Amino acid sequence: MEKQDVSKGEPDGYSRKVFPILFNLCSEGQKGQSNTVNLWIMRIFRGIIKKSMEKEHSQHHTSNYDRFMSGEYCNSLNPEVLEMISNTKACLARLDSPDLEDSERNGILRDMLGSIGQRSAVGRNFLCQCGKHIFIGDKSVINDNCTMMDENHIRIGNQVLIAPNVQFYTATHPIDYNERFVENWDENSGELFFRTRSLPITVEDNVWIGGGSIILAGITIGTGSVIGAGSVVTKSIPANCVAVGNPCKVIRYLKSDNKIQTIKSFKLRNWNRADIPALARHLNNKKIWDNCRDALPYPYTEKDAEQFISFVEGQSEQNNYCIEINHEAAGNVSFIRGTDVERYNAELGYWLAEPYWNLGIMTEAIKQAVEDYLSHSDTVRIHAHVYENNPASMRVLEKADFSKCGILRKACFKNGRFVDCHCYELLKR
Predict the structure, then answer these.
(1) pTM score over 0.70
(2) Cβ-contact 201, 167 below 8 angstroms
(3) What is the pLDDT of residues 186-230, one digit of tens each?
């Protein structure tokens, strides 16, 4: 969405009251002064007013559209969204007119959608919500009777085939009905009586989605993958695989360019600034944040990614390892040195992009990173802490030769409740 040009037009809020007073002060109350002085005073006041208006607009914008798009639960009726919905309804009403020429239909699609690439097509009875949140690449086909409820962004890559009756849902609601519905809701408030959040959906290049499949909020389907007909995709799907069922699960991996693409193939390397987009995309995942310290920002933006890269670039020793999979950054292994009497200890931290979970990657990445880190540092002990509700991470550490050394009862406060912390360690041989 384009931001309002606050330097033009009528001011609002506090500025609407102040502007006439200041204007009169400059134009009438200063008659005894030179025009140059008046102009100088006016420029100062205009600068003050502009900053005030920018602040007002920023606060309003952040508290509505931007918050909703960042994945926060909201129940406000955002004017930006309502306007998009209204425009989209008008476009959809015209889209399937029987006397419409192909060129006219393509023009409506271009006006309605965020973007649509060359040689791409959208079938009949297409349904969407906002329209402008949908981005379609080149040579992609969306067949008849498809639904894209695009409260958040839906990005379709290049050469994607989407069969009839496929549904995309970016919106979701709290599981607990006490959170889902607004207590003491006022019907005159202009807000909804229930809470909604929205998460983006990404379909990467060369994907084929079978008929009648359902793609849920926050999902990424990796390059070259196939989703079987009738599948319900509840978790992200890695690249170059076949996934089917309800819930959708990987059943096999595919060959590409006459080479077997093994998802377990990865490499550890240094982080660089080219990794910022992938880092922001993969780490903006609440499932990852739920198992990390609150210091990790959520939602996670490209600005956060840029700050992390700058931090890593300023480090004196190698203690952050980027996990590269399919030619992009998809995870991290880190070591934080202790201080004082614990200066020969280091705490292990790690995360992996959701499409690559449960494939053995994290265990092998930790093994390699630990070996390298111990080889160039004087660390003698590495430890890691895992929340009680993350048994998968415990198995990762155990497979990476870490030993469980205790449980700290109710040691951490996460997501509004106390949780036990399971402690693991590995000693340098």
Answers:
(1) no
(2) no
(3) 888 878 899 999 999 999 999 999 999 999 999 999 999 999 999
Residue 412 is part of a domain; what is its CATH number?
A: 3.40.630.30
| Whole-angstrom distance, CA of residue 169 vs CA of residue 141 | 19
Other Cβ atoms less than 10 A from the Cβ of 128: the count is: 24
Q: Where is the domain boundary, 222, 242, 260?
A: 260
Non-local (6+) Cβ contacts of 155 within 8 A are 135, 200, 201, 202, 203
Catalytic entry in 57, 60, 173, 385: 173
Q: DSSP code of 356?
A: G
- Per-residue tokens: 1: 């969405």
Determine the distance from the C-alpha atom of residue 1 to the mean position of all C-alpha atoms in its chain, rounded to a whole number.
17
Distance in angstroms (rounded) separating the CA atoms of residues 249 and 237: 8
The closest of 109, 104, 103, 138 to 122, measured between CA atoms, is: 109
Q: Indicate whether 180 and 150 sit together in one domain.
A: yes
What's the DSSP call for residue 71?
Answer: T
Dump the DSSP string for 218-258: T-EE-TT-EE-TT-EE-S-B-SSEEEETTTTEEEEE-EETT
Q: What is the pLDDT of residue 91?
A: 94
Report the C-alpha gap between 68 and 64 in whole angstroms: 6
The range of the structural domain enclosing residue 129 comes to 76-260
> What amino acid is encoded at 377 in this protein?
S
Under a CB-based contact definition with an 8 Å cutoff, are residues 336 and 384 in contact?
no
Give the span between the Cα atoms of 208 and 242, in whole angstroms: 10
Determine whether 383 is an active site residue.
Answer: no
Boundary (domain end) residue, out of 231, 260, 289: 260
Which tokens go with 117?
Answer: 């690439």
**How far, in Å, CA of 211 to CA of 116, rounded?**
21
Interacting residues of 31 by C-beta distance below 8 A, sequence separation 6+: none
How many structural domains does the chain have? 3
- CA 52/CA 60 separation, integer angstroms: 12
Q: Tokens 């609601």 identify what position?
A: 173
Q: Tell me the three state secondary structure of residue 147.
A: strand
